[in-house]
Each structure stands twice: as C-alpha cells, then as structure tokens.
Design a protein that fits this description.
This protein is α+β, with helices and mostly antiparallel strands and 444 residues long. It contains 10 helices and 6 strands.
Length: 444
C-alpha cells in the first residue's frame, strides 16, 4: 500500500507540473509569411549585406567615376621685413631699414582630364559589375538565412506535433489508470495493473515536460534568427506542402543557370576582363586641361620701383602626358590581370562541376526523403489500426496492460517518426531549391 501512495504522489506532482507548463504554452501563431517578412526586416546578417549593397551602389555614382573636374581655391598672404640697400641706374642709392613688403593672392583653379586611355571608363564598368556582384552576395546571404530560418521554424513545428502526440498518449494512460482503479476496486484486477498505469503516466508526463522545454528552446532559436524578443514565444504552422514534381524537374534542369555561386563566378569573370582593359589604359597618353582665375596684390618699400600693384586675370592651359616606359610595371600589371581572368575561368569550371554534383545529390536526398515520409505515413495508419484493435482487446481482457502499452508506444514512435520524416523531406526540398536558385521564387 505504501508503494501505491508513493506512485500516486509522484504522479500528482508530475501532472501538476505538466499542467502548469501547458498553461504557459503560447497560442499566438507565427505564419511562414510573417516569419520571412520579419527575417528580411530584422536579421542582422541581412541588414549588413544590404549596407554593403548600398556602399557598392554609391561607388557607381558619377561622383566616384573621375569624370567630373576638380575645383579648388587657394589664398595666401606674405609679409617680409628687410634691411635693404638699392642702387639705381643713375648711380644713386638708397638704404631702408625695416623695409616692409606685403603680398596677397587668391585664386580659383580647375583641373579636368579629357582622356586617360579609357581608364575611367573601364573603372566605371568595373564598379557597375561590382555593384551587381554585391547584390548577388546579398541574395546569397538572404538564401542562407532563409535556410537557417526554416530549419529552426520546422524544428518548432516538429516539436509541436510531437508534443500533441505525447499529450494524447498521456490522456490514454490516464484513462487506463482510471479504468484499472475501478477494476481494482471491484476486485477484477490486482494492484499491479494500477501501479503499471501510474508508472506509465509518470513516464508520459516526463516526456511532455522534456518536449515543452525543447519547444521553448527551439522558439528562442527562432527568435534569434528573426532578431525578435527572445521570450516572445510563438507557435509555428505545422502545415507542409511540397512543390509539384514537374516544377522541381524544371528547376533542376535550369539549376546551373540560376545557381547563386555560379552567377557570382560569372560576375567575377566580367570584372576580371574589365580589369585587363583598365590595366591597358596605362599604356595610352593622358590629356588634360587646367584653368584658374586669380587676384594678386603687393605693397612694396621705397627701394622698389613700384609702391604697390594689383592684378587679376584668367589662365588656361592643356597638358599631354604619355608615360612611354614606367619600368615595366604596366606590362606586368596586364599580364597579372590576364592570369587573374584565367583563374576565374578555372574557378567557374570547378564550381560548375561541384554544383552539378550537389544538385544531383540534393535531388536524390529529396526524393529519398519523400519516399521515407510516404512509408512513415502508411506506418502510422498501420500502427493506429493495431492500436485500435489492441485497445478493443484490452478492454475485453484479451491482452495484458504490457501488450497494450507496447501497442501504444509503437503508435507513438510511428507518429513522431512520421513527423520527423515530413520536415526532413521539406528541408531537403529547401536545400534543392537553394542549389537551383529558386529558393526566393517559391511560396512556403
């Protein structure tokens, strides 16, 4: 009798704890669309990538191309005090101690390069391509974060579904314990049946507590990806829809065209080609013009022919500079730029082979995961039928509580395995979509 009281006490404590946790379970749903929108608005990695795109866009502006002239202004004043002795042409001389001379000047200057061997032009082209590259890099960041988002989001959904399965198992165990208690009171079974049911209730309650803690941990992980308040816990949408197989095949066929890594590699090839042309511009002459408008004023001592002078005027000129030989640096730069282009071509070919392999592997993983999921769905149906039959036989006293519990555990394992298979298949699909460059073009 003492053992029975202990089991009941433990059961009451565990069930009360589980009930308390149940009351804290959040009911606010975070939809997939809302999760993606929040990710794009808040995720720190995406915000940093967007800043890099903004910097690259600024670099392509006219103010950074070198096509505009430079305008500067200068001003100065000079003051001299000298002891001077001057001899004039008529033979007279004059000495002045502390002779003061002051000069003032100011000017506005303009410099403009008319031609620099097309260096500015190809530099501008390079900046435009680097801007395009930065957008591709930002897209890659978004894709990576989205994969991370759905990995955590579907983990939340998986644990939610498992929690429902465990709670249902607890209800069955409670009904079994109540039935066993009635049967014991009427002398139909011994106390062992009641104790077994109570032990199973404690086990189921423990599993629920662990699942609830696992759920909260996953929800906090999700909030980190979304840069939300950590304790603002929300539930996930457990609905999963798979993309039409025909569309999947179309994505796979165009995978090497839309893959983000290959697109970046092609962008790097274009940039390297422009850098060769930019290096060649150093072999051509540079033509520029200069202009200035200035004012000068001076006050001179008695030893000078002029007591003061003031002048204003405009000056202009043109310059041609042709570096006929710079020690070979330009030639070396051109050679290295060509080697860099060759390297980018090799990188692209290597990357293409790797991407084709990754897409093939991802395709196989996806269809394999789908097949497993379909099998697990059928296994749940079979396990449910077995459990229902076992429950009927248990109520009729044709099987023991241990056999009934085994049927219950088989159903529970089948349901949780099916849940895991479902989200594994969906994540495999997401991985395939990322490799084929379609992750941002589909709805979840």
């Amino acid at each position: 009798m003492k053992l029975s009281v202990q089991h009941i006490a433990v059961f009451i404590l565990m069930f009360a704890f589980a009930k308390a946790y149940s009351q804290e379970t959040p009911t606010s749903l975070l939809t997939k669309e809302e999760a993606v929108r929040t990710m794009l608005e808040n995720n720190f990695g995406i915000l940093l990538a967007n800043n890099q795109v903004a910097v690259a866009e600024n670099n392509t502006g006219i103010l950074n191309t070198g096509y505009l002239p430079t305008i500067s202004t200068t001003a100065g004043i000079n003051y001299n005090v000298d002891n001077q002795e001057a001899t004039f042409q008529d033979g007279t001389s004059r000495s002045v101690n502390g002779a003061e001379t002051t000069r003032y000047n100011a000017s506005v200057n303009l410099d403009y390069t008319l031609f620099d061997g097309l260096g500015r032009y190809y530099n501008y082209k390079t900046l435009k391509e680097q801007y395009g590259l930065s957008k591709l890099q930002a897209r890659e960041t978004i894709e990576n974060v989205m994969v991370q988002l759905f990995t955590v989001y579907y983990e939340v959904a998986r644990v939610e579904e498992n929690l429902g399965v465990l709670e249902n198992a607890l209800e069955i165990s409670k009904e079994r314990e109540l039935r066993a208690q009635y049967q014991f009171d009427y002398g139909q079974v011994n106390k062992l049946e009641v104790l077994n049911a109570q032990v199973d209730i404690v086990t189921d309650s423990t599993n629920i507590l662990n699942a609830r803690q696992q759920l909260r941990n996953a929800q906090r992980d999700l909030n980190v990806v979304l840069a939300r308040e950590l304790e603002d816990l929300k539930v996930a949408d457990t609905t999963v829809a798979f993309i039409n197989p025909i569309s999947i095949e179309e994505y796979i066929n165009e995978g090497t065209v839309n893959n983000i890594s290959l697109l970046q590699s092609e962008q790097n090839i274009i940039i390297s080609d422009y850098q060769i042309k930019q290096a060649k511009s150093l072999l051509l002459p540079t033509v520029g013009i200069t202009g200035s408008y200035g004012w000068n004023e001076g006050n001179f001592p008695a030893t000078n022919f002029l007591a003061s002078s003031t002048s204003t005027g405009f000056q202009t000129g043109a310059t041609l500079r042709w570096n006929l030989f710079d020690g070979g640096r330009s030639i070396v730069g051109i050679k290295n730029a060509k080697i860099a282009l060759d390297s980018q071509e090799y990188i692209k070919e290597q990357l293409k082979q790797q991407v084709e392999r990754d897409i093939s592997n991802a395709k196989g993983n996806y269809y394999n995961a789908l097949a497993i999921y379909n099998l697990q769905e059928q296994n749940v149906i079979t396990s449910k039928a077995n459990f229902d039959r076992s429950e009927e036989r248990f109520k009729l006293g044709q099987i023991t509580s241990i056999e009934f519990r085994q049927a219950q555990l088989n159903l529970l394992n089948a349901q949780t395995t099916k849940n895991a298979a479902k989200y594994t298949a969906k994540l495999a699909e997401i991985q395939l979509l990322q490799l084929t460059g379609q992750l941002l073009n589909v709805d979840f």
